[in-house]
Each structure stands twice: as structure tokens, then as C-alpha cells.
Design brief:
Elements: E1 8-11, E2 14-17, E3 22-24, E4 32-34, E5 49-52, H1 54-64, E6 69-71, E7 77-80, E8 83-89, E9 97-103, E10 106-110, E11 132-137, H2 149-162, E12 168-171, H3 177-187, E13 194-196, H4 201-209, E14 217-219, H5 225-228, E15 232-235, E16 252-256, H6 263-268, E17 273-275, H7 283-293, E18 297-303, H8 305-314, E19 318-321
Bound molecules: zinc ion (2 copies).
Length: 332
């Protein structure tokens, strides 16, 4: 009998699904690509044909120009070659999907990036029991336990209220993190206009078009120092300490990321107010998900594999590292 899951093959540039002749999240241009979500380390331009959710395709169009896309709705089953394929929500960013593959009586779920805690900007992760679970492990160490998002947002808003003469400049990735922070702030009662860096504008518009209620956003560029006092300004992390931020009134520098748990990372970026808000599963979410799906094998795509591998082995689940390269460039 063939080894479990032998019909999909991990290569450094992505996962090849042989009986469908298609690649999952390939980092090189391929004739057929199945794309889990729009982050740059998973979705690249230049493929011959792309299957993804409508949201992911719209994000790819926005970043790379028009793509040869085939939209797949959540839950819809399509057949490619000899494989039944469906996309189910991953709870990571707008349009993010796990890819469920069925062939020869085996079910393999490729998670892409995912998280389990609620996110008002995307559909929640849907658990699909499977034979092989191909998972990320960005925060695959027991030290990573993300706090409740509302607590982090409340700390941010409290700091804002305590400093009416200053503004808070929050570093947040342009896809997912920025929009989630905006909606989380709205949910915690902050309805002031939020000022955004130009690099966030198109993706915020795209989220609004897909029905995510962001409230009033204004361009930060061109706003006067007076106008920005007591306001939240969002910008990509790379803009936190560069010339762009000099236009702001005595900014308090914040950053929202799962890595803000690590003090050294916050110091490196000269972040005064680290906010631990992650779009990836923390240790408890990773292990809870594996317990729930009860796979016979767990394959780990990227991240800190060792601890999770060990955890699986102590529970008689076979685990293996795939060592895919090029992930984790832009999202955390
Ligand atoms: Zn991602
Ligand atoms: Zn990623």
C-alpha cells in the first residue's frame, strides 16, 4: 500500500498535487496554482491559471494586476484531474482558505496560514477532520500564547485618551492586520476618523467593497499636526521610524504583531507600545486544532517545527517537516 499522502509532494517552492497537476501557494510561476490567501509569501503573480476565493483573487488583482483567476466559493467542490478540491475558511485574513484535497480515499487539508480566535474581518476557521493535516507553525512554541485581542485594543485606546496632545502611530501590515485593527477599535467604541498611510488605502477600499465596515478613514498624508492630535494613524511597519512619521505630532509608536510578545523585537523596532495581535494560531490554537481534526499525520510547512513535532509524537501522531521556503515575509 502506498504511503499516506504520497500523491502530494512537497518541494521547496510549494506543494505539488500530482493527480491534479497543480501547485499550492507556489513561490515560482506555475501553469496551475491553488492559492490559500493573498499575503505576498503565498500569492504571487505570473501563474498560468489561479484557483482561489473571489476575495483572494481581488487582492491579487490589486497587487499584481489582472490575474487569470477562477473564483471558488467556500464549500464548493470542484474536480481538477483526479482530485476533488474545496476551499474552506481559515480565519486568517479576508478570503483566506484551507484547501481540502480528496483522492484515492484519503483526505488532506492544507491549512495555509490560520487562526482560531474571532476576527470580525473574515469568516472563522472551519475544522475539517482529515488523514493528513498540513499546518503552519509560525508561533509553534509553548511560550507563544496570544492575549485576548480586546485587552490589547483597550490598552491602545486608553493610551490615546491619556495623551490628547499626541497621536499614536501604529505599525500594521497592509493586508489583514490594518483592517482588523480598525474594525476591532470600532468594536471597542472608537468611532473617530482613523488616519491611514497611502500604502494602506487600496486594500482598505477592497475590504470595504467586500462589506467589512471600517468606518471613516482619512489619508494621513496632507493632514496637519493639529488635526492629528489625539488620533490613531496606521502605517506599514517599515514607516514607523522613517521620515514619513516626522509629520506627526509627537507620535507614540505602537506595533501590532504576534512577535510583540518578544521584547527584543519590540525594542529593535523602537516600539513604545507593543500590541500582541496576531493573525496566526498560537501554541494553544495549533495543538487544539490538531486534537480536534485527529489526523493520522501532521505535516508542518513553516515556522518553529520542532516543538510541535515533538508534541505530535507524544500523542502517537506522525509528524514531519516540509521545510518550504519563502514563507513568513509579510504577515504575523
Ligand atoms: Zn498569511
Ligand atoms: Zn504566511
Amino acid at each position: 500500500m502506498a504511503r499516506l499522502g504520497s500523491w502530494i509532494e512537497p518541494f521547496s517552492e510549494g506543494i505539488y498535487v500530482r493527480p491534479a497537476d497543480a501547485w499550492i501557494d507556489p513561490s515560482q510561476p506555475k501553469s496551475r496554482a491553488l492559492v490559500t490567501h493573498g499575503h505576498g509569501d503565498h500569492a504571487r503573480g505570473g501563474h498560468g491559471a489561479v484557483w482561489a476565493t473571489a476575495e483572494t483573487l481581488a487582492i491579487m488583482d490589486c497587487r499584481y494586476g489582472s490575474q487569470p483567476g477562477n473564483p471558488v466559493a467556500y464549500g464548493e467542490v470542484m474536480r481538477l484531474g483526479e482530485v476533488d478540491i474545496s476551499f474552506v475558511p481559515a480565519g486568517h485574513v479576508l478570503g483566506s482558505a484551507q484547501i481540502v484535497l480528496e483522492h484515492g480515499g484519503e483526505r488532506i487539508v492544507v491549512s495555509g496560514d490560520y487562526k482560531r480566535r474571532p476576527d470580525p474581518t473574515c469568516a472563522p476557521f472551519e475544522p475539517v477532520p482529515c488523514d493528513v493535516f498540513v499546518t503552519e507553525a509560525t508561533f509553534g512554541l509553548p511560550v507563544f500564547r496570544h492575549p485576548a485581542t480586546a485587552e490589547e485594543i483597550d490598552r491602545l485606546l486608553q493610551r490615546l485618551h491619556d495623551n490628547p496632545e499626541r497621536c499614536i502611530l501604529v505599525g500594521a501590515y497592509a493586508l489583514g492586520k490594518a483592517q482588523r485593527l480598525i474594525v476591532e477599535m470600532r468594536c471597542r467604541g472608537h468611532h473617530d476618523p482613523i488616519y491611514i498611510h497611502g500604502a494602506l488605502e487600496r486594500l482598505c477600499e477592497l475590504y470595504a467593497q467586500f462589506g467589512v465596515p471600517l468606518g471613516e478613514l482619512r489619508p494621513a498624508t496632507g493632514a496637519t499636526k493639529e488635526e492629528l492630535k489625539g488620533k490613531i494613524v496606521l502605517a506599514p511597519p517599515g514607516c514607523l521610524n522613517d521620515r514619513w512619521s516626522r509629520r506627526l505630532p509627537d507620535p507614540i509608536t505602537a506595533m501590532a504583531s504576534g512577535w510583540m510578545r518578544v521584547r527584543q523585537r519590540a525594542r529593535q523596532r523602537m516600539v513604545e507600545l507593543p500590541l500582541i495581535v496576531s493573525d496566526h494560531a498560537d501554541w494553544d490554537e495549533l495543538t487544539m486544532t490538531i486534537e480536534e481534526l485527529k489526523p493520522r499525520e501532521v505535516w508542518i510547512t513553516h515556522g518553529r517545527e520542532e516543538a510541535l513535532k515533538h508534541w505530535c509524537m507524544t500523542r502517537q501522531i506522525k509528524a514531519r517537516e516540509l521545510n518550504l521556503v519563502g514563507y513568513e515575509d509579510e504577515d504575523d
